[in-house]
Amino acid sequence: MSGRVSLAGKADWLGEKHLQRLLAALADGGEEARVAGGAVRNALIGQPVADVDIATTTVPDETIRRAEAAGFKAVPTGIEHGTITIVAGGKPFEVTTLRADIETDGRRAKVSFGRDWKADAERRDFTINALYAEADGTIVDLVGGVADIEARRLRFIGDPEARIREDYLRILRFFRFFAWYGDGRPDAEGLKACARLKEGLGQLSVERVWSELKKLLSAPDPSRALLWMRQASVLTSVLPETEKWGIDAIHALTRAEKDLGWTPDPLLRLEAIVPPDAARLKTLAERLRFSVSDAGRLRQWALTAPVEPKTTEAELAKRLYRGDHQGLVDRLRLSLASARGRAVEDNDALLEAGGFSRLLAFAGKWKKPDFPLKGADLTTLGASPGPKLGATLKNLENEWVESGFALDRGALLERAAEALES
């Protein structure tokens, strides 16, 4: 990336006509507009670009006027901070006026608008996030971000402590971006600053904390970042459940995901580093305000008993029918990953891995069968609605499950008639 750096050939999205029209409209009459931040970073690294943000010298009201004059829709989503969402060609673009922080409290900042690109770059968190691209793809690097991308080095802009005191979320972002883009050891000064200022994490909303953790746990391999978070005592600050439990299982899990083609799953990875204690996980989910779905999945995993590798498919089918399918799949995946990790030096673990692999394949294909009887079938036989009918139906369902789902409707009706006569 030496010399004149450009996105030419690296960013087909930059040539999209609506984006080019928007950049041209914002840059008319002596103003300037550039693509900023993550889109530039990802294009240089060769990773997908999901969102395209734009920085401009036009003030918010002028941004709106120009966008609407060009035929685009403008929504003042964060106008007090200079951000307008422009919908162009059906795609949203966040357009933000160049800014400088005039006051921060560790969570929010008061800003002033300006025209200084270097001041705008220096208010950002990391060098790799402070790159700009002109409409023709030319990179504007005012903080050394291109060299850091080349080295896969994550570095705060300026003094790490100053950056963190502006927004303590940057502690978690340091480890999250390291997980996604870093290599080797984290920047030493940044790591020390995160360790020294970790108490500031208590000022953050729990929603922001979990959002960052979930993004970190979604990285291709978060294990190194989690290790350094633990070393800096940041991990136990936000996830005290990991204390005295450990994160060693995450290494085997990420290797299994890569080898077996599993999609990285942040909830499964969380399960790998916390104890299967339903009460503690309920507290965790409430503290970080998990969605009902995520909280339920954690709870069911904790309540699901481990599966032995010698379990037969027939035995597993009964458990799948009576229990939580996702909880069992999570148990099997974590057990398989652990066994694979130990199999390098342990022949017994190799056999266990084969058993878990077999059971996981079965669970992936298993479809829950429908119980052939309903309450109406028993009332047809003369049963009266009430507790006895419900108990009889439940007993019959248990017999059907224990038969390996082999009893057909006729056989079940015969048993029902006998039960009702007794």
Automatic annotation (TrEMBL):
Entry keyword set: Magnesium, Metal-binding, Nucleotide-binding, Nucleotidyltransferase, RNA-binding, Transferase, tRNA processing
Task: Show the CDD domains listed in the entry.
Answer: NT_ClassII-CCAase (cd05398)
GO:BP terms for this protein? tRNA processing
Listed InterPro entries: Bact_CCA-adding_enz_type3_sf, NT_sf, PolA_pol_head_dom, PolyA_RNA-bd
In terms of SUPFAM superfamilies, this protein maps to: Nucleotidyltransferase (SSF81301), Poly A polymerase C-terminal region-like (SSF81891)
Q: Domain tRNA nucleotidyltransferase/poly(A) polymerase RNA and SrmB- binding spans what residues?
A: 190-244
Q: What is this protein called?
A: CCA tRNA nucleotidyltransferase
Entries under Pfam families matching the protein: PolyA_pol (PF01743), PolyA_pol_RNAbd (PF12627)
Gene3D superfamilies per UniProt? Beta Polymerase, domain 2, cca-adding enzyme, domain 2
Does this entry carry the keyword tRNA processing?
yes
Q: Which family does it belong to?
A: Belongs to the tRNA nucleotidyltransferase/poly(A) polymerase family.
Q: Which domain of life is it from?
A: Bacteria
Domain Poly A polymerase head residues, every copy: 33-155
Please give the PANTHER family that the UniProt record associates with this protein. Answer: CCA TRNA NUCLEOTIDYLTRANSFERASE 1, MITOCHONDRIAL
